[in-house]
Amino acid sequence: MEERRPTTDHVARIQAEWRRERPDIDVTPQGVIGRLHRLADRLGEELRLVYGHYGLSEGEFDVLCALRRAGEPYERAPGELAVHTMVTTGAMTKRIDRLERAGLVTRRRSGNDQRGRIIALTSPGLELIDRAFTEHMRNERRLLDLVTPPEAAALETLLTTWLARMEHPRTSGSD
After folding, report:
1. Which tens digit of pLDDT belongs to each residue from 5-42?
2. 39 inside domain
3. Phi and psi of 112, rounded to 5°?
């Protein structure tokens, strides 16, 4: 794969302007954070194209994936879905409502708790998420192929470490 590095990208131009205007401030972090932010936006746009092809929002795609990953019979409680998709139960209710109207999921009372509900994939929902996920993985492969396999492996290691430190920061004085 041919290595292409822009001599000056958008973030580099912003950093140069800040260095000129505020030489007293270290803008080095902007090089990483700014590029990650721009990359996340671009990746999100590319991923949403696939979701849209199947008539799904990103959140609805996430719900269907969480149900599919549960294995047969492809069902979870709404609270469990919220945990598996990292959204609030209120946001989950809206997603489930739309998916139910589209015939992709069903809602039923829990056998153990009559107040509780169980959300399950329907046959059309299972068929749709299997096709959508297959295309999603092809799309992610296309995007990741913009870097070499060693670059991708190094990036995954760095991002895994950084995310773990963000999600589980050490408390001061506990080493």
Report:
1. 556 789 999 999 999 999 999 999 999 999 999 999 99
2. yes
3. -85, -30
Could you give the 3-state DSSP secondary structure of residue 150? helix
The 10 Å CB-count burial string (b at 16+, else e) for 54-64 is: bebeebbbbbb
Helix runs in 8-73, H state only: 10-21, 28-53, 58-69
Tokens of 10: 């958008």
pLDDT tens digits, residue range 52-73?
Answer: 999 999 999 999 999 999 999 9
Output b/e per residue, 135-148; b: 16+ Cβ within 10 A: ebeebeeeeeeeee
pLDDT digits (tens, 9 = 90+) for 110-143: 776 656 789 999 999 999 999 999 999 999 999 9
User: Model-level pTM?
Assistant: 0.84
Q: How many structural domains is the chain composed of?
A: 1
Where in the sequence is the domain holding 53, given as residue range(s)? Answer: 11-21+29-143
3-state secondary structure of 107: strand
CATH number assigned to the domain comprising residue 130: 1.10.10.10
87 in a structural domain? yes
The answer to the question of residue 167 being in a domain is: no
